[in-house]
Amino acid sequence: MGEFELIRNYFAAAPCAQGGEGIALGIGDDCALLALPAGEQLAVSTDTLVAGVHFADPCDPFLLGQRSLAVAVSDLAAMGAHPLAFTLALTTPTVNADWLQRYAEGLNLMAQRCGVGLVGGDTTRGPLSLTLTVFGRVPAGQALTRSGARPGDLLCVGGELGNAAGALSLVLGQRNADAAVADPLLAHYWSPQPQLALGLALRGKATAAMDISDGLLADCGHIATASAVSLLIERQRLPLSQALLAFVGEDAARVAALSGGDDYVLVFTLPSDELASLLADGWPVHVIGRVEAGQGVTLLDGNGHDITPAIHGYQHFQQTP
Ligand code: ADP
Ligand code: MG
């Protein structure tokens, strides 16, 4: 199978590559063409996943297809952007028809769930890696950036934390667990659900937002820096799932929630008078702390004592106001 047959069979023919909102021209020419409504800006983000670095190889190609797109689309959710389209740059050492078929199926399922169309890409031979670029639209000036947090805002997350990090020993085959515990954790790792609807609901309300990919502490550090504020996190407020608590216990669950990464849950700052209406509308908003004047990220125990971990790699999050 040659390069063009591969593209045609597995990607151009996929249901998610048959056009959609905002797609004036899809796969097949030198560029795709996207059409934006007047007054909207294009939101663009790229993510690369390298075999052996970002995912175990071999792994289930269907799950990899889902995950590779979900982590990219999560960046659109974090900006409050409405998803439109994506491209796929695939580098693979061999052409394995079964692998490509199942990868494309997983990709297609997540694309349809997120409402993005595949509009192009590149296909090359080399060590397995995937680069996905996502495109969304957002009314000019309304994107949720990292830089608007203000002292007095609440610090919130959009769901339970630490599940994907808790799943890692299952993913790597180092541990086993009953399905009731393992399945929800593995689902969170392999099939994260980008919080697109929440991102849209936060437009005009949240003052800053991002998606958690590197762990809550590290990612809050980015908001603190960009907004030039101090973020205080109250440890006992971290939302933890029953499955994670059952699998690793409370202490390890908190570590996973604070620095595990791969959550793809939104973290955002919110003026306190916006909270009630978001909760009334049923949005999953968990208040985990607050914004103060100063800089950096501080973790507090139930008595308000600073227990910011001195973990290597997180030193720069220990600055206190
Ligand atoms: P060019 O040489 O102009 O860069 P290619 O020959 O690489 O284009 O690709 C031909 C068409 O197929 C282009 O429209 C490109 O966007 C698309 N394409 C290539 N690889 C992929 C892929 N893995 N998934 C989706 N579309 C792809
Ligand atoms: Mg060309």
UniProtKB/TrEMBL annotation:
Quote the EC number: 2.7.4.16
EC supergroup of this enzyme: transferase
Which residue numbers delimit the PurM-like N-terminal domain? 28-138
Positions binding Mg(2+) 1 in this chain are T46, D47, D122
Gene Ontology terms describing biological process = thiamine biosynthetic process; thiamine diphosphate biosynthetic process
Molecular function (Gene Ontology), one example: thiamine-phosphate kinase activity
Q: Which SUPFAM superfamilies match?
A: PurM C-terminal domain-like, PurM N-terminal domain-like
What reactions does this protein catalyze?
A: thiamine phosphate + ATP = thiamine diphosphate + ADP
Q: Which residues form the PurM-like C-terminal domain?
A: 150-299
Binding residues for ATP, per the UniProt record? G121, D122, R146, S213
Pathways involved: Cofactor biosynthesis; thiamine diphosphate biosynthesis; thiamine diphosphate from thiamine phosphate: step 1/1
Q: Which domain of life is it from?
A: Bacteria
Per UniProt, Mg(2+) 2 binds at: D47, D75
Alphabetical list of InterPro entries matching this protein: PurM-like_C_dom, PurM-like_C_sf, PurM-like_N, PurM-like_N_sf, ThiL-like
Binding residues for Mg(2+) 3: D30, D75, D211
Keywords, alphabetical: ATP-binding, Kinase, Magnesium, Metal-binding, Nucleotide-binding, Thiamine biosynthesis, Transferase
Q: Which family does it belong to?
A: Belongs to the thiamine-monophosphate kinase family.
Which PANTHER family does its entry note? THIAMINE-MONOPHOSPHATE KINASE
User: What this chain does, per the record?
Assistant: Catalyzes the ATP-dependent phosphorylation of thiamine-monophosphate (TMP) to form thiamine-pyrophosphate (TPP), the active form of vitamin B1.
Quote the record's miscellaneous comment. Reaction mechanism of ThiL seems to utilize a direct, inline transfer of the gamma-phosphate of ATP to TMP rather than a phosphorylated enzyme intermediate.
HAMAP family recorded for this chain?
TMP_kinase
Q: What is this protein called?
A: Thiamine-monophosphate kinase
- The coding gene here is thiL
